[in-house]
Input
Amino acid sequence: MNCKLAALALATALAVSPLYAQAPESLSAETLPLMLSQSLMLDFVDSGNRAIAVGERGHIAVSESRGDWRQVADVPTRSTLTAVAAVGDRAWAVGHDGIILGSEDGGLTWAVQRIDTWSPPAADDFDAEFNPTQGAPLLDVLALDRDRVIAIGAYSLMLVSADGGKSWQQVDPNASAGAVDAGDESAVDGVDAEAVDGAEAEAEADDWTMSDESLVLEDEEDPHLNGIARTPEGGLMVVGERGSAYRSLDDGASWQRLRLPYDGSMFGVLALGERHVLAFGLRGNVQESRDLGDSWETPDSGTELSLQGGAVLPGGAGVLLVGSNGVLLKRAQGAAGFTLQTFANERQETPVLSAALPLSATDVIVAGEKGIGRTSLK
Output
C-alpha cells in the first residue's frame, strides 16, 4: 500500500491499476445520476466564488453556498480524480491515467490538459524500455499562482507547468536531490523494513492506497509522491511512501531528498507557518517540522487509524486531520495534543474520510467513501 487515494471504492475493495487504460468519456447529468451522498469523493478546494470537490469516475461537484452541491456535467473523463487546486477562477484536477483537467471559470467547465493512459509495448519490441511513470496516477496538485502548477504522483512522477497548464514538463526530483537524514538517524536506520511492510499490508483494508501489485513493482529509488504543500515563505515540501520526503527552497527549481524518522508512508502534508509543516499518514503517524525538514518531531496523534487528509483551520484556530473510520483529529493553536472525535453521516455510518474543507473554526465539510458530509468540531 504505497499510493494515497488510489482505490476506486473501499467498500468493494477494488483497486484500479494505472495500467488499466481507460479512454476519456463525457459524463453528463443525463447519463449519470447525482450520487454525491454515495460516490467516493477525494478532495476539496475553495476557489473563492465556489468550492470544488472531485472523486471517482471523473465526478466533480461545485457549490457556491458550500451547502448545496451540484454535479458538473460533461466532465471529459471517467478517470478517478484524486486532487484539486485553484487560484481565483483557474482550477486544476488530477488523477488516474496521468489525467490533468483545467478550468478557467472556477470549476464550471473543464478541458483535458494532459492524459497518459498506459499502453503495452508491442509483443515483438524486446528493446522497449519500461517507464513506470507512463500511465501512473497523479495524487496531488499545488498551484503556486495562476500560471505555475506542480502535480505529483506514483514513481516520483512530478509535472510542472509555467503557463497555467497549456504545457507540462516532467521533472525528476531525484536528479538533483542530495539525501539528508532528518531527525534521529537511529530511528530511521533501526526500522525493520519487513515490519513496515507488514503494517502497511495490515492497514490496506482501511486506506485509500494502491497495493504493490497494482503498481507493478516497488522502486524505493523512485518513491510514490503523495502530498505537496507550500509554506508562506515559499518553501515546498513533498511527502511520500516509506519515510521519503523532498523539499525545495527555490520554488521547485531543485529538490533535496529527506528521510523522515518514521519509515512508513505519509499521505499528506500541511503548511502551518513560515517553515512549519505537518505530515500525516499510515497508522495515525504524524511528523512535524518547524525548520522545513532540518529536524522532525513525532506528536502523538492518539490513534492508530490511518490519516488521509487534513486542513488548516481558519483564524489561527489550529489544524484538522481526517481518516479511517470517520476519525477527526483537531489540534487547537498552541495545544500539545489532538482531540479525537468521530464523524457519522445521516445513516450513522462512519466512513473513511479523505479530505476536509473548513468553513469556520468549528464548521467543516468532509469527503470520503460515502460522498460529501458536514460536521461540527468540538
In short: The radius of gyration is 19 Å. The first strand starts at residue 3 and ends at 4.
